[in-house]
From TrEMBL:
Family: Belongs to the sigma-70 factor family. ECF subfamily.
Lineage of origin: Bacteria, Bacillati, Actinomycetota, Actinomycetes, Micrococcales
Pfam families the UniProt entry points to: Sigma70_r2 (PF04542), Sigma70_r4_2 (PF08281)
Protein's organism: Nesterenkonia aethiopica
The protein, known as: RNA polymerase sigma-70 factor
Domain of life: Bacteria
InterPro entries: ECF_Sigma-70_Domain (IPR052704), NTF2-like_dom_sf (IPR032710), RNA_pol_sigma-70_dom (IPR014284), RNA_pol_sigma-70_ECF (IPR014303), RNA_pol_sigma70_r2 (IPR007627), RNA_pol_sigma70_r4_t2 (IPR013249), RNA_pol_sigma_r2 (IPR013325), RNA_pol_sigma_r3/r4-like (IPR013324)
Length: 333
């Protein structure tokens, strides 16, 4: 049995790996952190000789995550509105997911596909396809036979083998499109937004009933562009800005107030043709691990006031002479 100091060092070294495992199984950063805390307590208190800390902790984290997922599935069935995984930052400033592998398995699209799997299928798929464990180790971890694990993996692969978005191959292209998207949104530039979106673009929001959000998916270039243009300028007027970040391995934005508080996290799926999918997570419970959260209802009041002021300013004043009122252009002659 190692000393407590040795176990602390071992757990600290393995923590990024264990977080990435728990997060992929759960789709929740907060739940993954709870699992790691529980795993650490079990590791610190065990009297057994642990010859391979990685194997021991991988087993503990997997079993705990499966148990948590089984219970959280019931809550997700009664979730208010559209459910999305909790976003994690995957750029160089990320914590705790900085060391998580930047493969497609951490993308929002893949995490949503994983939601179709049973908890056990999900664990087996992640252990096999992401962490490349052999079936003997997987069988021991999930307490099933090797044959059963092979069947679970095969079923999971069928669910995961659906068509996926074609992401831009050139990161510079993605960065440039994100920069243009930010500028167009903040200025409410409808034409530019239309140019940046694909014809079949879809926008979904997750407020969980705890924050204003898009109540239903919005699809189509015109509808999505109009929605974005209608909220961008008022948000800018009250000091809200967009901070480009890599989120779940994709182009992303953290919406912040003028004081730096987080309003929501936006994930953009970008293909060679433009923005194909926009996912906005506004549920404050899913954002707390990213930093201080804004008072979303106060912000909503400020937004509505700014929007009303902009509309009023764009309308002709009552009682003004006709010559001073804006009038539509007409052909000369």
């Amino acid at each position: 049995m190692g000393t407590q100091h040795q176990r602390t060092e071992e757990f600290t070294e393995l923590r990024p790996l264990l977080f990435s495992l728990a997060y992929r199984i759960l789709g929740s950063a907060a739940e993954a952190e709870d699992v790691l805390q529980d795993a650490w307590l079990r590791y610190a208190r065990t009297d057994a000789v642990v010859e391979t800390p990685r194997a021991f902790l991988t087993t503990v984290v997997t079993r705990l995550a499966v148990d948590v997922l089984r219970s959280s599935r019931i809550q997700r069935e009664h979730y208010v509105g559209h459910w999305l995984p909790e976003p994690v930052l995957t750029d160089h400033d990320a914590d705790p997911a900085a060391a998580a592998e930047r493969d497609e398995s951490i993308s929002m699209a893949s995490l949503l596909l994983l939601e179709r799997l049973s908890p056990l299928e999900r664990a087996v798929y992640v252990l096999r396809e992401v962490f490349s464990l052999d079936y003997a180790d997987i069988a021991e971890t999930v307490e099933r036979s090797e044959a059963a694990c092979r069947q679970l993996a095969a079923r999971a692969r069928k669910h995961m083998a659906l068509p996926r978005p074609r992401y831009a191959a050139d990161p510079r292209t993605r960065q440039e499109l994100t920069r243009r998207f930010i500028a167009a949104f903040q200025h409410g530039d409808l034409d530019e937004l239309r140019e940046l979106l694909t014809a079949e673009v879809i926008m979904v929001g997750d407020g969980g009933g705890k924050a204003p959000s898009v109540p239903h998916p919005v699809s189509g270039r015109d509808k999505v562009a109009r929605l974005l243009a209608s909220v961008g300028a008022p948000m800018t007027a009250i000091g809200v800005h967009l901070e480009p970040r890599e989120i779940n391995g994709s182009a992303g934005l953290l919406t912040r107030t003028e004081h730096g508080e987080i309003v929501n996290a936006v994930i953009l799926e970008i293909s060679e043709d433009g923005v194909e999918m926009i996912r906005a997570v506004s549920n404050p419970d899913k954002l707390r691990h990213l930093g201080p959260i804004s008072d979303i209802w106060r912000l909503k009041e400020e937004f509505q006031q700014a929007r009303a002021s902009q509309r009023e300013a764009s309308m002709p004043q009552r009682g003004a002479p006709m010559s001073q009122r804006p009038r539509p252009d007409r052909p000369e002659g």
